[in-house]
Amino acid sequence: MTERFRRRIRPRRHVATHAALLSLLVASLAGPIGSSAADGRTLQVPGDHATLEAAIAASQTGDVILLAAGTYPGGVVVPEDRPGITIRGVDRNSVVFDGEHNRRTAIEVEADDVALENMTAHSFVENGFYWDAVEGFAGRYLTVWNVGLYGIYAIESRDGVMEHSYVSGAGDAAFYIGECYPCDAVLRDLTATLSAVGYSGTNAGGNLVVEDSLFEANAVGILPNSYDVGLEPPPQREAIFRRNVVRGSGSVPTPRQTPLGGFHGIGIGITGGVDNLVEANEVSGSTRYGIVLVATVDRTTTFSVSGNRVTGNRVSGSGTADLALAAPSGADNCFEGNQASILDPPELASGCLPAGAGSDAVAAELMLPPPALLEGLPDAPPYTEMPAPPPQPTMTLPRTGLAIELVLVVAIAVAAPLLVVVGLLLAKRRRRT
User: Fold this and answer.
1) pTM of the full structure
2) Could you tell me if residue 321 is inside a domain?
3) For residue 155, which of 207, 258, 232 has the smallest C-alpha distance?
4) How many CA atoms lie within 13 A of 252 on its CB side?
5) Which residues lie across from 88 on neighbouring strands?
6) How many CB atoms are located within 10 Å of the residue 302 CB?
7) Contact 347, 357 (CB under 8 A)
8) Which carries the bigger pLDDT value, residue 55 or residue 36?
9) Paired residues of 122 in beta bridges
């Protein structure tokens, strides 16, 4: 090959390379617009619709309703005929639902596959964010504080996730998954504080995991429980509680608008539960029991604990016992590899216990109907008087279709001169040949 021929073909390779790169640039930037359109529209509030309710009424499956910064009154319902939408705030700390202590709930969801993301709710007489009898739910980057009942709450609902969220000052449970089997739900990277119960789950289990979360300064930390409330039948069973940090349960005054607050001072309580796994948690500073297994008494019925595994936990600083089992228990409650100092009974050091094992002292204190558990407890402060939490990390928002279009326009404006140069080089090449 002659040097002249090399010189003649080099510009062609150079031009082709630039053309390909430019084509890829434009295609890559254009691509997400198609994906965004396929997934649904972005409905701006108040830009496109004056209220959240109006945006919900106009929404279709796959749409994202994007709330601008501001204060919203709440009392919003997502009806059953609006499935598959996402309601998202532009900023977790500046999109705020304020119940003013006279509205019930910020957002109640009755539709399947609805996600609530990146917003705050406070001062509601009942709940912050709530899913009722749905298939598919997600709550992410939510903050709830000072509510009369539940912070983030799903009942008779399955196939869901709660993550990256914070609840403070809930009169009942900060986080609740209840009345489902199988629940097929994961709760992770959560913070619950200054509430009657950090996590409560009545008759909830079956592929249910609570993990990698902080439960600090609640009356009760984690409390799966068995009671017959007329929905999913008891017992609570087959849930996993792992790698959580539970601190200071019962150590500070908290609101209390639930009889389960009578389990005051317990870090993790398996109450009437069956076949649960409590693994690799760090539990410290509980005023009564660090981890305890106890039957529940529901009117004339007792739901015993059996088949539970408590393994690899670190428990310290408990007021009565670090590990405890109330007598008489069901069979095969196993305690293995835990670091704990005070055990009641001492047989909890290692191994699986037979039916009937446990401590009579623990039973006398805890194996009582819920109203009796409340006797002798000091008055609780109202939820309205709990302190507001600090700002929480906000969600990184995906680019909307409009943002992608703006990027595409800029990219084309930048690329246009280069395309002209490519065209000139190709024309020059043709003239030479």
Assistant:
1) 0.85
2) yes
3) 232
4) 14
5) 66, 117
6) 13
7) yes
8) 55
9) 98, 145
Do 306 and 329 contact (CB within 8 A), yes or no? yes
Range of the domain at 226: 182-385
Query: Count of residues for the chain?
Result: 433
Measured CA to CA, the distance from residue 128 to residue 85 in angstroms comes to 19
CB 335 within 8 A of CB 307: no
Domain presence at residue 275 = yes
Q: Taking a C-beta distance cutoff of 8 angstroms, is the pair 102, 126 a contact?
A: no
For the chain, how big is the Rg over CA atoms in Å? 28
Residues 143-166 have a mean pLDDT of: 98
Whole-number Å distance between alpha carbons of 138 and 68: 20
**Which tokens in the block code for residue 25?**
């640039």
Residue whose pair of structure tokens reads 């246009």 in the numeric block: 416
Query: From the CB of residue 408, how many other CB atoms can be counted at a distance below 10 Å?
Result: 18
- Report the first-to-last Cα separation within the chain, whole angstroms: 17
For residue 168, give both structure tokens.
């403070």
What does the alpha-carbon distance between residue 80 and residue 197 come to, in Å, rounded to a whole number? 30
CB 257 within 8 A of CB 383: yes
Contact residues for 22 (Cβ-Cβ < 8 A; gap 6+): 415, 418, 419, 422
DSSP count for the chain of H helices, then E strands: 5, 32
pLDDT of residue 400: 55
Structure-token pair, residue 279? 């693994």
Q: Is 309 exposed, middle or buried (0-12, 13-18, 19+ CB in 10 A)?
A: middle
Query: How many whole angstroms separate alpha carbon 158 and alpha carbon 256?
Result: 27
Residue type, 395: M
- Mean predicted lDDT score pLDDT of the chain: 88
- Report if residue 46 sits inside a domain: no
- Asked whether residue 337 is assigned to any structural domain, the reply reads yes
Q: Considering its fold, how many domains does the chain have in total?
A: 1
User: Residue 384 is encoded by which pair of tokens?
Assistant: 């309205």
